[in-house]
Amino acid sequence: MDFQTSILGRMNGFLYQCRADENYTMLEMTDGITRAFGYPADEIIGNRVRTFTSIMCEEDVPRMDEAVGQALETRTNWSMEYRLRHNSGHYIWVSETGGGVWDTDGTLLYLEGSIINIESFYQRLDAQTAEMRITASKTAEILHSLRYLKLLAVNAGIEAARAGAAGQGFAVLAGEMRNLANESEATARQISQAQRKTA
């Protein structure tokens, strides 16, 4: 097995060449389209059974058109993320990098590029975001509890003052409670601010 065939066989996605038309009519596709998305390549090549845009999330097609159009105008590559519908019906996030190919006269011949399945990345990102939401919720609960603890410390200090000499030990305890609450609240607020910055 040659190097390119071996690498393409491991690729969680596919390479393509297509026309620069409204359907991105596929001229060539590697078999990763079948492995990653469940469609036989010969169903999409030449729009024989379905067009490539028909398996894109409808909301993402205008963004693709804009990205491709801008890249062709400047003769640069485009790179974007969007969703492809798997043959079983669910959407998969992909990352595409592509560009135009011109002949020596400057005539656009076709588009070519790679499309990679990045769904696992989005799933990890979503899981991390969910964990951050849970942590943020717990931080809010901690801040609420600390405010209550500070109120208890203030009340304890008042009662200790009323008790005079007999309440000196209680006054020390109330002061320690207040200091602990203040320090813990400052830490919790720092965590909360850090979470908002990364959200």
Characterization of this structure:
It is built from 6 helices and 5 strands. The mean pLDDT is 78. It starts with a helix and ends with a helix. Helix 5 packs antiparallel against helix 6. The longest helix is centred in the last third of the chain and has 45 residues, at 119-163. It is elongated, with a radius of gyration of 30 Å. It has a 5-stranded antiparallel sheet, with helices on both faces. With 199 residues, the protein is of the alpha+beta class.
Please tell me how large the radius of gyration is: 30 Å
Please indicate the percent range of residues in DSSP E strands (runs of 2 or more).
Answer: 15-25%
Mean pLDDT: 78
So what's the overall shape?
elongated
- The run of helices and strands is HEEHHHEEEHH
Distance between the termini: 46 Å
| SS-based class | alpha+beta
Q: Give the low-confidence spans.
A: none
- Lateral arrangement of strands in the main beta sheet: 2-1-5-4-3
Main β-sheet: number of strands, strand sense, barrel status?
Answer: 5 strands, antiparallel
Helix residue percentage:
40-55%
Q: Count every beta strand, where a strand is a DSSP E run of 2 or more residues.
A: 5
Number of separate helices: 6
Question: Brief overview, please?
Answer:
The chain is an alpha+beta fold and about 200 residues long. It is about 55% helix and about 20% strand.
Topology:
Layout: H1 3-10, E1 13-18, E2 26-29, H2 32-37, H3 41-44, H4 61-74, E3 78-85, E4 91-102, E5 108-117, H5 119-163, H6 168-198
Antiparallel strand pairs: 1-2, 1-5, 3-4, 4-5
